[in-house]
Each structure stands twice: as C-alpha cells, then as structure tokens.
Automatic annotation (TrEMBL):
Protein name: TraG P-loop domain-containing protein
Pfam families, alphabetized: P-loop_TraG
Recorded superkingdom: Bacteria
Residues annotated as domain TraG P-loop: 11-292
Lineage: Bacteria, Katanobacteria
Annotated InterPro entries: P-loop_NTPase, P-loop_TraG, T4SS_component
Source species: candidate division WWE3 bacterium
PANTHER family tied to this protein: SLR6007 PROTEIN, UNCHARACTERIZED PROTEIN YJGR-RELATED
Extent of the signal sequence: none
Cited CDD domains: TrwB_TraG_TraD_VirD4 (cd01127)
C-alpha cells in the first residue's frame, strides 16, 4: 500500500486524548507519535511523572529537566509572557492562575482569603513596577514567591498573616527552592521533558500545574508548531481549579499553534470531571486502547460505544 502521512494540525484542533490501562501500549504509542512529530518539525514538550521518557529524550538530544528540590532547574510562577494580546488582560489572567496555584499550595482558600490574596498579588507586582499597563509587563524582572510572602506578612489582616504562615514552608522550610526562584529553563530544544518523579506525591499536582502554566506562558512569546504531552493527566482532575486550567489550554491551544495530548490510565477520575469530559470534546483525536474492566462502562458511555 501507499504511505499515508497524517498531520494532526490539519484538523479542527491538534488536541488528542489517550485512555488505556497500564501495560496496554499507550506510552509506546505516544513515544512513536512524538518521534514522528519531531521529524515533521514540531517541538515536543512532555510532563513525565515516572521518568518514562528519559531515554527517548536523550536519544534525540533533548532537554531533560528533573524537577525536584535539589534540581538546578527553576520555574518562577510569577513569569509573564510579555505579549500584549488585544482584548486580553495579561496581568489579570496571571493573577487568576496564581490564585489557583496558591489554592493548591495552601490547601484551599476562603472567599475572604482569596480577596486579600488578590490584592496582595497586585501589590507584589506593583512593587516591582509591573501594573495592568502592558508597557510595564515586559523587560522587568518579575517578583518571586518570597516577595508575596513579605507583602502578606506586612498586611494588617489576620488572614494575610495566616496565609503567610502556610506559605512559609515553600520559602524557608522543607520546600525551599522549588517554587521560589527566577526561571532558568528555556524551551529551545526540539524535545523538552519535565520529570516529576523525585517529588513527593502530594507535590505532584502543584508541580503539574506550575509546569503547565510555565509552558503556556512561554509558548505565547514565539508561535510555532508544538505538542504538549501530559502523562497521568488525572492528577489535574482531582482539583476543580487545575482541571479548569488544563481545559482552558485545550480550548485555546489552536490559537497558539499548540496540540495538547492528555494521557490517563485512571479513566474514571478523568471522565468524572466535567472539565475532563470537556477536554475530550475539544480533542479531535481520541485513542482508546485496552481498558480496565472497572472503567469500561464510563468509556462506553462517554464515547457512545455499544
């Protein structure tokens, strides 16, 4: 037969979902597609919770980032894209993302705490000279988590002090250095893999969100054909805010020439979320491999299978 060349970027969107139980070949399938995408000039970024993609990344001369407390690689959640888009408030969008991240880090927020935190974040950026004026949002070093900690400590409200105390372990305690430094990672390599294997289980949803936000911020600076692969995406479905965020990426990815691939073996967790279902409907490609008996009914219902 003839060779068939299929370009997922020719579809309505370049998103895909892959559902399969462990050992059914999903990682092999995704790795094979990643290699083929590289051949056709796409950049590939992967969130890898189990170090499955290290050998592949090294084989193609990619950038392998071990995201952990002892790593030299750092991501600053306060980074801005520096790209002014008509009709979008860059700082406002970043504040929403930071509040979501801080909810994950602090174990939730009350309505009062969220309002105080919003004001504190605005002040943290203002001290660095960054405001809602787009001209102030590029060329200036952004704040880091310690700057927010100082603003909260200096606030008059008791709730602000309480949030500062909960944030302290990420600034001075056992989590020091993971979330409190300027970014030093570039995405210039044809393949970039972010490994979260050496993080505590409790920190993985936070790290997933932080990496996703970093990638989303950076890709908007320089549009080119890119694929973002998120292994074990069910981690993000465990929290409504992080689920909403990855759905937002799936919905807006096409505008930035990005294809999002979400992979999960925990089908029930993924599809039990309304945002998980919405990601499926916003993905032009759905790959179903061997399923666990416990999840097959949910798969059949979602994909209208007999």
């Amino acid at each position: 037969g003839s060779l068939v060349i299929f370009d997922r970027f020719s579809l309505e969107n370049a998103n895909s979902v892959v559902f399969a139980k462990s050992g059914s070949g999903k990682s092999y399938f995704v790795k094979l597609e990643a290699l083929r995408l590289l051949v056709f000039g796409a950049e590939v970024m992967i969130i890898d919770p189990e170090e499955e993609y290290r050998t592949l990344c090294e084989a193609v001369g990619g950038n392998y980032i071990d995201f952990s407390a002892n790593s030299t690689h750092k991501i600053n959640p306060f980074d801005l894209s520096g790209v002014a888009v008509e009709g979008e408030n860059e700082l406002g969008q970043k504040l929403i993302g930071l509040i979501t991240l801080l909810k994950l880090m602090l174990g939730g927020l009350t309505a009062s705490e969220e309002a105080i935190l919003d004001r504190a974040l605005i002040e943290t950026y203002r001290i660095k000279g960054i405001t809602t004026d787009p001209d102030t949002q590029s060329g200036i070093e952004p704040p880091v988590m310690e700057d927010l900690y100082k603003v909260l400590m200096g606030a008059s409200e008791p709730e602000a002090k309480g949030m500062a105390e909960r944030l302290e372990r990420f600034i001075k305690g056992s989590m020091t250095g993971i979330f409190d430094s300027q970014s030093n990672i570039n995405l210039d390599s044809k393949m970039t893999v972010f490994s979260t294997k050496h993080l505590e289980e409790a920190l993985r949803p936070i790290a997933f969100y932080l990496i996703l936000d970093f990638v989303w911020t950076r890709i908007r600076r320089d549009l080119k054909k890119r694929i973002l692969i998120v292994e074990e995406a069910w981690y993000l479905m465990q929290n409504e805010d992080s689920a909403r965020f990855i759905y937002g990426i799936a919905k807006r990815a096409r505008k930035y020439y990005l294809g999002l691939t979400t992979i999960s073996q925990d089908v029930d967790d993924f599809l039990s979320s309304e945002y998980g279902k919405a990601i499926v409907t916003n993905s032009s490609i759905q790959i179903l491999l061997k399923q666990h008996p416990a999840g097959i009914d949910k798969v059949a219902e979602t994909f209208y299978l007999s």
